[in-house]
Amino acid sequence: MMRFSGSTASAIVSMLAVLVPLCCPSFGATGDVSIAIPATGPSGSPSGYFALIEVEGFTTGASYDLDGAGGGSTSVQDFSTAAIVFTVTSEGYSGSGTLGTVSRTVYGTIITRDSYPDDANLDETDTGSALRFYVALSEPIFDDDTATVTMTASTVTNTGGGSETSNALTDAAVTNSSGLDYPTTNQHFEQYAVTQHADLVADDFTVGLHAFAAYRVAAVRFTATGHTSANEVDVFVTSPTSTERTATGLSAESHKTTIDISGFTDGELIDVRARVYPVVGDTIADNQSNTATHEEIRKFNLLTVRYDTTPTVRYVRTTGNDSTGDGSTGTPYLTIGKALSDSPDTVYLGAGTYAGGSSITRVTSSTWATVTPEPGQDASTVIVQCNASTRTYRHERYRLRGVTIQQAETGSWFDGEEVGNHIRFEDCVFDDNGFVPTTSVGYRSDSCTFVNCTIASGAEPLNFASWKLSSFSSATVAYFADGCTFGQATTATILKGWYGVVCSNVSGHIGFAGDVAGTSMTSNIGGLFLCNQVLDHVETNVLQLGQSSGHPNNNWFVGGNIISRNSGSGAGIAMAADNTSTSAQDTTGIIFAHNTVYPQTNSVRMNFAYNDSGSTARNRTNWRIVGNSIGQSNIKSDTFGDDANLVGNWPLVFGAGCGSNYMQGPIFVQEFAGFNTSQGSSGSPLDPGYVDGANDDFTPDTGSALIGALDSSHKLMRFDLFGNPIGSDIGAVQTISTPSESDREREQSESLLLRFGAMDVREITPNADGSLTFEVVMLVTVKTGLELDVISVE
Question: pTM of the prediction?
């Protein structure tokens, strides 16, 4: 016999208090139940996605009724009668940025099986005094959550023993040993028609942030602070707005606000801090300390602008002279390079053709030098050429706006020289002019951004084949596109090194790949693929996450996209699948929401979250796949790879974090497809009921199963890619209808700060004089639908 006293005895008593409810429920009566969230899932799978259940006095070979309807089922068929329901209290933020708690409902969905080669058997264990088994959860339970559980009587029958039935649980405490952290948010400063980092501002300016989270964003907070004046403007934005891109006609949402310039000092720098508050989670995304190069590349650095009402301007014309001119409108320069050497804010170009490169001494600059047509000219009269003789542009921040970008000869491109330069194309027309470069247009630039760009009539498309839009060898370059038309191509191609693609039209042989390109990037980069229209795609993958060893492309948001395909054999989408390097690495934080993937054929299959090769579990954690209409989807794990260790993707295999999806005809199916999900088979596919999918109209038709099928907990976006408010339809395209009263009330409660009668306050801005400015939203139903009328009152 061993005796303990003092602190040792107290420690043992404390340890037993934790262990006994989970491991030793034999002190209860036969049929009593205990439920815990274990530190490790079944067969060594990730923590937080499974409940471990013990039933006193039972043995293996039991029968189950998870459906709670008396029919006997190892999985839930009708969640309204689900037998095991958790009430989970998670940490989360309010619309005013206050950390509090939020309640979530999580269901026990399916009894898990053993891993390969015993996969035909349920994962049951006889502890000698109790039956132990695992149940998958509809959503994860995180390490800082608390939970209670209700379980209906007779959920388990002791078929292997005396046929006793399990007792009920009502609001019973759950021992939570989950090791799963809350998911992080995904955010990028909007690139279209708003102020950018390193911009010059002369008046009030607008900033916007694409912000998304696995369980929605409560608020985005913008704080603008003057370096000299110390003036501060602080605004909470709780509702995103949608903006259409003129080059593509597509729209995307972002949280926006306008910064009042009146309190700042002319000539000073202004920092704009952005913070993202998740509805579920205890971590705020904050750009205040994000000053490294890779943070600027991924569009969430500390946004700094210069307030200047007297910017430096230079003029360049074909009649100018670099020797005798001074860059004024009366005596202009001849070349862009000469103008840049004066460190101007704006370079105005007269009608004509100019070389875009130069051999000047590199200009360092904290603000963009914008090269653009002078008033009265436009892209039809002003051409800036890439040429082979002088490829370098020699400026830290080189922006070409509203001009035609033209290849002058084979081997032409803009070269950033790998010295920390950035190049940006806005509202440009691209003309290959019959020539093809041998490397990328932004070769050796730290970043290369395209905004609202189109293709010249009759020109080859803006893509890899014609413009070599790709990372090249180990050279540093990272691409971001917003509102661009990429067009058709005649050979299989792939766009690599893309960290954000928003509101872009793509057709033909084009694939987007999130790939780390160059030493300025970090492996955990958060990427964005938002509200794009990819039509008639063939051959290579449309979207492929994970091309570089050691760079798993975590924390991606893929939402609101239409992806269709009419031929080819490669997968349409590969996310940590198909032997990409990411499929051999752990991957976390992938959100795939409100997408339409068409048709239901092998050529457009979505392969995701594989763990099917080697002998190591590759964990897929904090993935959320919700609100999608998918033609064919595939997932592979231990039973495909014939190895018991290949269970890192079991959360998704058993449907955790998946819901409101319409899976038309998977081949390698999830063993449970998720909450509120319809799943057909390859031999008997479901019909989503589009208006005319064969001709790219993916609007749900009258009677479509997609209409009204989106559960409110799976609504992660507010607008579709055509600017329509997302109501309750599954897929990328919404039917246009007035939201139901319940939807309207939920929308109001999510973003509401204050309510005055029929007016909802969405923004509150403190003024310098102590007063407050309110942004007020009024919902008015009219015959044509729903109008949002925003007014400002003080």
Answer: 0.89
